[in-house]
Amino acid sequence: MFEHYRFTADERFLRYVQVDTQSDPQSSAYPTTEKQKDLSRVLAGELKQMGIADAHMDEWGYVYATIPSNTDKKVPVICFCAHVDTAPDCSGTGVKPIVHKNYQGQDIVLPDDNTQVLRMSDYPYLQKLVGHDIITASGTTLLGSDDKAGVAEIMDLANFLMTNKSVKHGEIKILITPDEEVGRGTAKVDLKKLGAEFAYTLDGGDAGSLEDETFSADGVEVVIKGVIAHPGYAKDKMINAMKIAGEILAALPKDRLSPESTDGKRGFIHPVRIEGIAEKCTLEFIIRDFETAGLVKKEDYLRTQIEERLRTYPKAGFEFHVKEQYRNMKEVLDLHPQVVEYAKTAIQRSGLEVKMESIRGGTDGSRLSFMGLPCPNLFTGMQGIHSKLEHISVQDMNKAVETLVHLVQIWEEKN
Ligand SMILES: [Zn+2]
Asked: What is the pLDDT of residues 152-163, one digit of tens each?
């Protein structure tokens, strides 16, 4: 099926990464930076050129497009989704991509800053990329494979399907979003207009990896209420809320339940902000776990710690507010097991081993899942993201496109 096809994901990728699309967490505009539209406009134009009639960018910078069904079967409408913005952590201005052909395991020194060296010992996944063509930036910027790899792969899928009409598939939707990196990628999405039943984000790493789990997340705000008095006459009267807050923070375990001490499936209690005066002090926490029950347990633990500290200060008080942030998308995906099953089969048909992974964070996919569009995350090949050492293999990108081509056919076969 792919013998006569010339993959275009790498060629597209090299062009897309040169467009600066960094998003901005400080901005309250939609999208947070206008420059994201520079790339989205190009994408809508390229999709139209392929013959996709309804491809367009809306006023918020979202790109929507429909590849019509070419089968008589009734197949659920599926969507592929990626984001155009790059992370605010590292500059995305003036990205100069470099292709290192036929990588042989050597250190790759980036030319514009010799201190930036890509080493196999730091990035063990490079062991799998010997013989591949690897794309890096030049040393002063990120590369932007997160998520322009996903974008380029979806664009190549569209190109493949529009030029290989014998490959049977149902209706396919394409959705390109802005502002994923600042947590606002779904803020202005119109799911009704999109009209898809299931979706996949292309925003994952290693070839073959598939993510169907994210953290569940709550925020907790704790307000400590002290007793204020003139400091010159405060003996036996004043209770300093800031000092109590300090005791609470000091009581949190350092060797467990913290981001610094956990990985894998373990969650944590993480103080993120403190603000106050002697009379009143506010502490903000984020709570993370893969299960809702685990979140509640951690919240109870935090509350107990606070109550115990306050026992010494009977005249002080506190408020404890829990706010739901997002939930593990597995809760939704388990109701539609075929979405993940078909993706596993597609990965295998591409000759790769399936690697199931859990995301220690939230994704647009988890938000979309709870907005009614079940949406696991597929690999793109991106590595070392949000850094100057970001890199990606051209062969991995092509495998991602292959996987998508298999995936649309599996949806058609099984229905
Ligand atoms: Zn991403």
From this structure: 999 999 999 999
